[in-house]
Amino acid sequence: MRFARRPMLAAGLLPGLAAAQPAAGLDVTGAIAPPTRRRLSLPELEALGMVEVVTTTPWTNGTQHFSGVPLQALLASLGARGETLTAIALNDYQVTIPRAPAIAADATIATRQAGQPLSVRERGPFWIVFPWSRRAELDSAVVRQWAVWQLARLDVS
User: Fold this and answer.
1) Is position 109 within any domain?
2) pLDDT < 50 positions in the chain
3) 151-156/25-30 β-pairing
4) For the chain, how many structural domains are there in total?
5) Residue 151 forms part of a structural domain
6) Helices (H) and strands (E) in the chain, counts
7) Which end of the chain is more exposed for a tag (fewer CB within 10 A), N or C?
8) Is 29 a member of any domain?
9) How many CB atoms lie within 10 A of CB 42?
10) Domain range spanning residue 84?
11) What is the CA radius of gyration of the chain?
12) Beta-carbon neighbour count of residue 89 at 10 Å?
């Protein structure tokens, strides 16, 4: 007996599975202006003002072209009062980042790479990136730890 594979998702035979992944959004919680929990969609985040970061990274080959929102702009837009950020990834990796040094290091919440939205497969939907190529002092173990990919949440304290 011979069986043929059927594209069940494309045919809509398994409703709900295709839509199981939520739309990309960044949750920001903690010491921010009320409400103290905000979920910013990709368009809301990008509306804060985009910058370009052209750099190499320790995890990719060649020069990368990122677009994203400066961390400073994000925090200002939310009325963030805390001095510490806890960045949490989709896989629950988390790191504590001091606010002032991250801003001084030009931290950017990348939303796009080569003009395309970052997919989970490509370290998205959001990735904290730094201008490593432009500022050699940022190529340190500490700053590499701050470069959280698959970023899902920032907690401000």
Assistant:
1) yes
2) 1-21
3) parallel
4) 1
5) yes
6) 5, 10
7) N
8) yes
9) 18
10) 23-156
11) 18
12) 18
